[in-house]
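Record 1 of the preview.
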Amino acid sequence: MMCAHRWLAAGAMAIAIANPAQAAWPERPITLIIPAAPGGTTDISARLIADKLAAKLGQQVVVENRAGAAGIIGAQALARAKPDGYTLLMGNIGPNAINYALYKTLPYKPADFAPVTLVISVPNVLVVNEASPARSVADLLAQVRQDPAKVSFGSSGAGQSPHLSAEMFKQRAGIPGTHVAYKGAGPAVAALLGQQFTFMIDNLPSSMPYIQAGKLRALAVTSDKRLAELPNVPTMAEAGVKDMVVTAWFGLVAPAGTPQDAVDKLYAATRDVVRSPEISERFKAMGGQAGGNTPAEFAAFIDQERVRWKSIVDAAGLVQEQ
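->
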């Protein structure tokens, strides 16, 4: 029996020596790709957890913004990365769900990714500039119908949930509107502050500081219930726009083929970080809810989201060439 134990131990040591990267992961800094510009929820949530993850994993987590093309640039970079656990993506509803329906061709496919865990989910919010005469959804709709040729709406990029939420809003309310796409929520919010378009349906965290400062006016949220952080802002249903519940989500994704050991360690560390009192309270203050589901649960959720958004994109006639 003693000989057998020694033989097993020696075998385990030989495997560890033969596969040092897998056995010791992580043994060098990890790059976390953000497929959007600074200032949006993808960027905000990633930066909130990066240092905490680094402390848990014992290695630096370097945040790298790769904005543009509706998140395609960042997602493609991850798909092409070596599956060793050292390159990750803060995936979201756009590049990891909506884009598969929105574009006829993409430089990546669902099988290129290994979902790790959901980080945060947030409702969207319909906002206008403080100088807008619209003080309710009804006011905004009246304004739009009075002069439809001048109506435009901004978003963090084609295919992102703010864009598709606004398209849904147009369908449900029966109004026109020209889409103006930006390379992230940060630039889009800045444009709305500069009164460059009529309205925006934004992920709540990127607009929240400006709502609280009185620079943007929130007219409705896309959650099914009012938010404690914005108790005076009605839901879309309360504002008269039915079937308009949208939840944006953001989570960690690795390249397909990443060693399971690395995925498991990353999942456990991220779950502990997002569910910690400090981070979960920060997320709540942003109007968001902490995630932390298992890789299998997150993968199943993303599959469901792809199916759900395909029906919305098809109904809106938004399919386009990449």
